[in-house]
């Protein structure tokens, strides 16, 4: 019982009634609701220009509080163990596509596979990428993530062709095998250590990918770059204030230092090309293969690919090296630790490959790792459950109709992958780690899978590094399970502002005899 429990005095009842009335009035006045379009004011007949048909309707929803919109509710959910609860709650009220107000702008949120797919497929005449201000500021205007039109397509095409080339995959495989073996030999020397998978994966993957991007070898400059990169990445989701002492300020300074180093590398390469009279096409496949992404972009010979554009993009391409791929590896280890039958099948598959190859006196090639069917299912399932990229935001450049929904000019669209990947209507028992569900779904290996499975996005911006991400994860897992057994310590997934393991996924490893 509370103190004073019992019948409330009349004044208290009146005060409570007034308070409730005030809250209702404030909500009515200031929190606009956009109700389903059965003839309500949200219907915009004839208002859509340049593509939206007359019958397109604004989805139902709520714009939340003045100025703040629904951002606080979104962030609150994002910090919880179930970030998708923000969408799930509104999905029950308004349907799979609903209106909201996020990051300072009205927005349509999609958790509908078909609508999401259509938004991803749309080109820059309908939607352009949208990112929070701190991120835009740090990435710069010439980042592929914000570029549109022909230049985005060119950089995307060059990156995709390079990252998918068998030659690069062979080099990454050799580098990664050597680097993983060195790290694991150090674990063995330390007896039976506790290893933080996230830290180990980060330093390995960063070195391998940076070498593929800018041709830098291990050593002092690589360490310097990584230090600066850590400072840079910390500001990606931060307050958009550039004053000394703020994270954004420190991150911009770190970017400047990285840019100086990368531009020095670009200029040296340019000089060498001129000295060698090297105007030949590095993609001819017969004379030589470009050794890194800078060579690819320089070899393209386009004046549009300036030093500034190249260095900005090299820095952006490092984000998956420090973040997405290591987190994919770490999450896979976590999920496997919690699912012994999956771990056992993965071990058997990898041990079998190791025995076969060493019996024949052969080393493992990238094709061997990629043909490990069950290992690939584990990676696919990790991508579905882990939602390393929760979703993407676009801005409508005109009124756009998507499957009957109107997205007005200037509004954002949040294509929220996470809510689709964890929707029971799309994936059975979605919170269970079940790699076997992918048995007959070869399409997902190449970024297919429709709007129901989009960890790498889709359409013109489908991640060009998806093969590389899978390859690196497969190599790490192969060497881990064929050389060690482990006991995982308790750890939890944090989902905001980026996905990671709170303690870095500590595991106590013992070498296999
Ligand atoms: C687990 C690992 C990864 C995940 C989950 C991931 C996810 C994504 C997603 C969702 C997009 C689409 C963004 C959009 O539509 O706006 C994307 C784009 C991109 N990714 Fe990845 N990625 C991963 C690894 C990589 C790697 C290894 C690289 C290359 C080094 C890479 C390079 C890129 C680039 C350059 C783009 C921009 C493409 C464009 O806008 O044209 N990613 N990635």
TrEMBL record:
<keyword id="KW-0560">Oxidoreductase</keyword>
<comment type="pathway">
    <text>Hormone biosynthesis.</text>
</comment>
<dbReference type="GO" id="GO:0005506">
    <property type="term" value="F:iron ion binding"/>
</dbReference>
<keyword id="KW-0503">Monooxygenase</keyword>
<dbReference type="GO" id="GO:0016125">
    <property type="term" value="P:sterol metabolic process"/>
</dbReference>
<dbReference type="GO" id="GO:0016709">
    <property type="term" value="F:oxidoreductase activity, acting on paired donors, with incorporation or reduction of molecular oxygen, NAD(P)H as one donor, and incorporation of one atom of oxygen"/>
</dbReference>
<feature type="transmembrane region" description="Helical">
    <location>
        <begin position="6"/>
        <end position="26"/>
    </location>
</feature>
<dbReference type="InterPro" id="IPR002401">
    <property type="entry name" value="Cyt_P450_E_grp-I"/>
</dbReference>
<keyword id="KW-0349">Heme</keyword>
<comment type="pathway">
    <text>Steroid biosynthesis.</text>
</comment>
<dbReference type="GO" id="GO:0048441">
    <property type="term" value="P:petal development"/>
</dbReference>
<dbReference type="GO" id="GO:0016020">
    <property type="term" value="C:membrane"/>
</dbReference>
<protein>
    <recommendedName>
        <fullName>Cytochrome P450 90D2</fullName>
    </recommendedName>
</protein>
<dbReference type="GO" id="GO:0010268">
    <property type="term" value="P:brassinosteroid homeostasis"/>
</dbReference>
<comment type="similarity">
    <text>Belongs to the cytochrome P450 family.</text>
</comment>
<keyword id="KW-1133">Transmembrane helix</keyword>
<keyword id="KW-0812">Transmembrane</keyword>
<dbReference type="GO" id="GO:0020037">
    <property type="term" value="F:heme binding"/>
</dbReference>
<dbReference type="GO" id="GO:0048366">
    <property type="term" value="P:leaf development"/>
</dbReference>
<dbReference type="InterPro" id="IPR001128">
    <property type="entry name" value="Cyt_P450"/>
</dbReference>
<dbReference type="GO" id="GO:0016132">
    <property type="term" value="P:brassinosteroid biosynthetic process"/>
</dbReference>
<dbReference type="Pfam" id="PF00067">
    <property type="entry name" value="p450"/>
</dbReference>
<keyword id="KW-0479">Metal-binding</keyword>
<keyword id="KW-0472">Membrane</keyword>
<feature type="binding site" description="axial binding residue">
    <location>
        <position position="463"/>
    </location>
    <ligand>
        <name>heme</name>
    </ligand>
</feature>
<dbReference type="GO" id="GO:0048443">
    <property type="term" value="P:stamen development"/>
</dbReference>
<dbReference type="InterPro" id="IPR036396">
    <property type="entry name" value="Cyt_P450_sf"/>
</dbReference>
<keyword id="KW-0408">Iron</keyword>
<dbReference type="InterPro" id="IPR017972">
    <property type="entry name" value="Cyt_P450_CS"/>
</dbReference>
